[in-house]
Every structure is written in structure tokens, then in C-alpha cells.
Amino acid sequence: MSKQTEQAPDLSIYTSLAEMIANFPKAQYARALALLRIPDLTVAGPRPLAELVGETGAHPESLRRFLRACVMLDLTVETAPEVFGMTRMGALLHSASPFAAIARGTAGLQHYVPYGYIVDTVLTGRPATKAALGMTFYEYLDANPDELRQFGALTSITSGDCGEAVAAAVDLSAYPTIVDVGGNSGTLLGQLLTAAPGNRGVLFDRPAIVPAAREQLAGAGLADRVEVVGGDFFDRVPDGGDLYTLKNILWDWDDADAARILATVAAAMPSGATLMIIDQFLPEMPLGDGAELDPRTRELHRVSFSILLQRGGRVRTEAEYRDLVTAAGLTVTEVLPAPGAKRRWDLLLARRP
């Protein structure tokens, strides 16, 4: 083959790989902007560095260099020497925007640092958070109230309109008492009770979550319809409910721990009560090179490894959930989609005989 007919190398793959390798700090810049409240402080327009130093308490030279680095990332602009404002993208990190909660929560240490230990997880099959931070994912959150608060805000944002989607797919009037196990600050339960005004609810989560949950549910006008209970779902959950919901709970845990959680929930369920697993099921299909997969499937495969890395769990297929639920002594009655505005949720309903 002559030099004229040799195929030119695809330089785009080199560029893409280089960008991937260099991308790891970018989320931290966005998170830092949100935590420092720079988008809030410049909402009326660009401000001198000295004023931003006074508002944030930052080290002047470090803040100047940080904001100029953010200019390179198209997050900030320097409209005059040492006068900084936000770009349209950077302005989305204002505290009133959901992107601020996403940046603060997603790029928190419990999410971010374990990625430096990917090889450890691949070799051992165990989550890396304990090696990275000296404690498990949820131990770290409970020991760091600020990170716990950011994580709670993140889960509320990512839940989106999940409760509304569930209420559109399932007749909630058949379940007078709804027990949301691992319900965090109450976004899902609040939406379910708003859609079913005749129902009552019980929110169950770790004791560290209880104050924030009570505050959020009271703010939604639901304090008189909800009991908030703290505890450990490996030990026991509140009994006597008609519907038990587990939203994005089981995927945090390996099969053995997921089975333990289901056994605890099943033990609390009276005969005839229903369990509803609200999750996103992994399609059972070959991946090929991934190029032809829909965005949802591509994201779920990425999330599945991230959950292993951080918490030891996994995204499961419908068949895997059926096996776990059946092993807990429950009978699967229905599997159906619940399309929301932001994402499609998968529901698996199972009844206790």
C-alpha cells in the first residue's frame, strides 16, 4: 500500500481520551463555585474580587486564581481586571437552581474520592469507600452533617416527579397506610400523599435523617399525616402498613444484604400487604460496543459500577429482582413502567400471602 492510500489515523479518539483523562477535576470546580455561593453573590452582575473575598472569607490570591481557572471552563467571566461574573452555564449553579444541589451532592467526597480506588474494587469486588475515607458510604454521611444535607438535597432532585409518576401508574387509594422504607427527607412520600389525600404515611430512615425529614414534610403541610421513624432496616421496620415502598434502596446493597432488607420488610408486612420496589431495571441484552444502546441503558451500566465502587450494590434486571422478592416469601403480582417527566421508573409489586 502506498503512502498516498494509507488510511489516516483517527485523531478524534486521541482527543477524546485526552479529554477524558483531564476531566476529573471539572466537577470539583462546579461544586466549589456552588459551595462558595459565587453564582448567588454575582446574581446582579460582576463584582470586584475584593468584595467576593469579603463575602466568602476566601484567601484573595487563591480566589483570584480559582475564578480565572473557572473562566477557562466557561463558568465565569472576568469583565475587567479582577472583576468576575458568571457565564450562562455558571449561573445555573445558583442556589435556587437544581444544578447547585446536583453539583454539591454528586461531587461530594463520598462520591468522588473512591474513584481513585477503582482498581482495588475491580480486584476485590468490594466497595472502595472504606479504603478511601476510612468508613463506609453511609457512615461517612452520618459523620459529616454538611455532606448528609447535600446528599439529601441531591436525592430529592434526582427523585424528580417519581411520586407523581407512581401515583399515575398505581391506584394508591387501595393502600391507606404507606410505609416508605429508606425514604430520606420525604420527597417521594410527600408526592404520594399529595396524590392520595386520604392516605397516611410512615417515613422510615436512619436516625440522622429524621430531623430533615420532619422539617421537609412539615413544610409540605403533611406533618399531621406522616409519622417519621428512625431505625435500621436490617433490624426492623414499622409494621402494619398496607404498602411498603423501596425506592433506589436495594441497588445500594449486594445480594446478601438486599435479601436481608427484604426479609425485614416482609416480616413487618401483614398478610395481604404489598411491597413496591421503585427502581430502574437493567435490560437483559448484549452490549456490543455500546454505540447502539439507548442513553438510559448506557447510563445504567455506568451507574451499576459506580454503586459497586461506592456502596457495594448493583443495578439489577427484572429477573434478579423477581428472584430476590420470591426468596423473601412474597408473590410478585405486577411489573409495570412509571414514566416520569425526567426518567422512566420501573415498578415491581409483590404481595405477602
TrEMBL record:
Coiled coil (residue ranges): none
Molecular function, one GO term: O-methyltransferase activity
Domain O-methyltransferase C-terminal span(s) in chain numbering: 115-330
GO BP terms, alphabetized: methylation
CDD domains: AdoMet_MTases
SUPFAM superfamilies assigned to the protein according to its UniProt record, in alphabetical order: S-adenosyl-L-methionine-dependent methyltransferases, Winged helix' DNA-binding domain
PANTHER family: O-METHYLTRANSFERASE CICE, PUTATIVE (AFU_ORTHOLOGUE AFUA_4G14580)-RELATED
Name of the protein this chain belongs to: O-methyltransferase
